[in-house]
Q: What sequence folds into this?
């Protein structure tokens, strides 16, 4: 085989600047995952897929991706954001991907700046809606309080 493998035939993209795609992944995938982890755990769900069976969580997660996170992304992204959001909703709904809410909720103080705080601030400065991002941050705070009140240790390297 000459050259590189034909990864693009399987959907891989070759781009000159990966940063906008990394931001998209951190905000839309990881940010939504964090939203589901904190708020889903507080609602009594053990797994991410269980959150997605709740019509309210499913709808709010989609709103987070499309109405808030997507508006903070580089407009030059060469990707259909709606299709990406739909793919993530499908992935989060997969019962065979047993991501525990408590596992995803770990290390929030390190994860939230790029997943929630930066996009929240960007929307705030533009006077745009950031209600679901606010709910994500509030969910994290309530999750930490809940863990502490149950006398459990907070799995976060910055808890010192």
A:
């Amino acid at each position: 085989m000459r050259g590189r493998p034909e990864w693009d035939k399987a959907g891989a993209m070759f781009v000159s600047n990966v940063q906008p795609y990394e931001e998209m992944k951190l905000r839309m995938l990881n940010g939504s995952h964090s939203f589901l982890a904190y708020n889903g755990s507080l609602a009594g769900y053990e797994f991410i897929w269980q959150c997605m069976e709740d019509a309210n969580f499913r709808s709010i997660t989609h709103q987070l991706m499309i109405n808030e996170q997507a508006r903070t992304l580089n407009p030059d992204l060469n990707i259909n954001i709606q299709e990406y959001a739909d793919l993530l909703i499908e992935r989060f709904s997969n019962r065979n991907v047993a991501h525990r809410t408590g596992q995803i909720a770990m290390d929030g103080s390190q994860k939230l700046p790029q997943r929630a705080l930066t996009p929240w601030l960007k929307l705030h400065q533009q006077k745009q809606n950031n209600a679901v991002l606010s709910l994500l941050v509030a969910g994290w705070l309530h999750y930490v309080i809940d863990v502490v009140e149950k006398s459990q240790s907070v799995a976060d390297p910055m808890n010192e």
User: Anything to note?
Assistant: The chain has one domain: 18-149. Residues 18-149 form a domain with the N-(1-d-carboxylethyl)-l-norvaline Dehydrogenase; domain 2 fold (CATH 1.10.1040.10).
